[in-house]
Amino acid sequence: MNAVRLNPPATLTKPGIVQDHQVRATIPLASSKSESNRALIIDALTGFRCDLQNLSTARDTQTMIRLLKSEDTTADVLDAGTTMRFLTAYFSVTGQHKIMTGTPRMCERPIGILVDALRALGADITYLKNEGYPPLQINGFAASAESTNRLSIRGDVSSQYISALVMIAPLLPNGLTLELTGAIGSRPYIEMTLEQMRYFGADVRADWEAKTITVAPRPYVPKPYAIESDWSGASYWYSVAALATDETAEINLLGLKAKSLQGDSAIVSIMRLLGVESTFTDTGVRLTKIPTHQTMVWDFTDCPDLAQTVAVCAAVKGVVLRMTGIESLKIKETDRVAALQAELQKIGAELVELETNHLYEVHQLAIAPPGPATIATYDDHRMAMAFAPVAMQQEIIIEEPGVVAKSYPSFWEDMARVATVEFITE
Ligand SMILES: O=C(O)C1=C[C@@H](OP(=O)(O)O)[C@@H](O)[C@H](O)C1
Ligand SMILES: C=C(OP(=O)(O)O)C(=O)O
C-alpha cells in the first residue's frame, strides 16, 4: 500500500521559546481541466488551429490531448468523465470509428442519455457490454432526413452530456436546440461551455427560464486562448487556511480571477462562512483568516466538486453543515456520499441523510476516535485532497496519494509548503 503521512507544520523553536506554527505560502495551482478539455475539443473542431496556452497538466487533460491525436481504434479515457463524454460526441460528429472505454468505475458511470441524443442526431453507437454504460463502439455519423435538430434532454444527471452536445452543435447541418427537462445540475459548467464556445465565434443562446439552449450551424473561429487556474483545486487551499491554527496565516493562490468561468469560484462565498477572507490581487487571490460561523447551509447543485472539501473542513472546525444538491456525487469517481460517510467517521464526524437523497448534515461526534486517522481514497482525487488539510491540526495518513494526478498532479509538492509530507511505500 502507498500512503502519505501529513503532519502540522513544524513548530518553530528558538532556545527557550516555542512559537506558533506559521502558515505563509504562495501556491502556483494547476490550471482548470474543465476549461482545458473544452478548449481542446473546440480546437480539434477547428482542425487544431487555436493556440491554447496554459493547458492543464491534469491526467484528464493529458488523456484528452493523447486521444485526440491517436489513430488507435480504442480510446481509453481512464477515469476522466469529461474526456469520455466530450470525446464520444466529438468522435461521433467527426464520423470516426472508435471504441470508447475506461476504468472499471468509468464503465459504471452512465452515458445512455448522451448516447440516445447522439443517435437521434445521426450517430451509430452500440454498447459493448451493458446498455447505457461504457464500453461502447462509435461507428460513424450520418445525419439523415429523420435526424432532428431539436432534442429534449434531462438536466439532472450530468451536465457533461449537455456540454458535449452543444460543443459539437455548430457542426450539425441545422444546428441544435436542446430542451432541458427536470432540475439542472452543475449549470455553471454548461455556462462555461457556452462562454468558451462564444469566445471561439459560436452563435449560442441560452434561455434559462424556458430551459432551452440554441446553437446555430456556424463554424468555430480559431483563436489563441489561455486557460485559467483551477478554482476546484483552489478549494483545498481555502480549507488549509480555514484549518490553520496560525491566526495570521496567509496563502496566495496564483492565477485566479474574481470573474471566472468556473462555478467553483463559489468557494469564496462558502469559505467566508468557514473563516476565510479572499482579497483579489494582481497575481491572484490572498487568503486570510476571519471569524467562523457555527452553523451553515449550502446547496451544492451548482458546485458538486466542492462538497467534499467543505464537508471535511466543517467537520474539523466543529461547524454544523447542512448540505443539499449532492445527489450527483453518487455517480462520480466513486460514490462520494458513501465515501465521505465512511471516512468522516475516522476523524470524529459523521454525514447523515436527514431527508432521503436531498438533505444531509455533517457534524462532529461526541467522542473522537483516538490516534491519527488513515483515510481511504476510493480512486478519487477529491477524497485525498479534501482530507489533506486536516493536517493543519493533526497527523493524518492518506492512502494511494497518486490519485491526485487526475486533476492536480503537483498537489503534494504544494502541500509540502504548509505541512510536513512523508511518503510511505509498503
Ligand atoms: O463539465 C465539467 O467539466 C464538469 C462537470 C461536473 O460534472 P457533472 O455535470 O456530471 O456534475 C463536475 O463534477 C466535473 O468535475 C467537471
Ligand atoms: C467529477 C469529476 O470529474 P469527471 O466527472 O470529469 O470525471 C471531478 O473532477 O471531480
TrEMBL record:
Protein name: 3-phosphoshikimate 1-carboxyvinyltransferase
GO cellular component: cytoplasm
Keywords assigned: Amino-acid biosynthesis, Aromatic amino acid biosynthesis, Cytoplasm, Transferase
Domain called Enolpyruvate transferase: residue spans: 21-69, 74-415
Residues where 3-phosphoshikimate binds: 33-34, 38, 158-160, 186, 305, 332
Catalytic activity line of the entry: 3-phosphoshikimate + phosphoenolpyruvate = 5-O-(1-carboxyvinyl)-3-phosphoshikimate + phosphate
Active site: residue positions: 305 (proton acceptor)
Family stated for the protein in its record: Belongs to the EPSP synthase family.
Binding site for phosphoenolpyruvate: 33, 81, 109, 160, 336, 382, 406
Intracellular or extracellular location(s): Cytoplasm
Keyword Transferase (UniProt): yes
Top-level taxon: Bacteria
PANTHER family: AROM/DEHYDROQUINATE SYNTHASE, PENTAFUNCTIONAL AROM POLYPEPTIDE
Main localization, broad class: cytoplasm
Ranges in a coiled coil: none
Gene3D superfamilies documented for this protein: Enolpyruvate transferase domain
Subunit structure: Monomer.
Function per UniProt: Catalyzes the transfer of the enolpyruvyl moiety of phosphoenolpyruvate (PEP) to the 5-hydroxyl of shikimate-3-phosphate (S3P) to produce enolpyruvyl shikimate-3-phosphate and inorganic phosphate.
Keyword Amino-acid biosynthesis attributed: yes
CDD domains linked: EPSP_synthase
Pathway assigned to this chain's UniProt record: Metabolic intermediate biosynthesis; chorismate biosynthesis; chorismate from D-erythrose 4-phosphate and phosphoenolpyruvate: step 6/7
GO BP term, pick one: amino acid biosynthetic process
Example GO molecular function: 3-phosphoshikimate 1-carboxyvinyltransferase activity
The enzyme's E.C. designation: 2.5.1.19
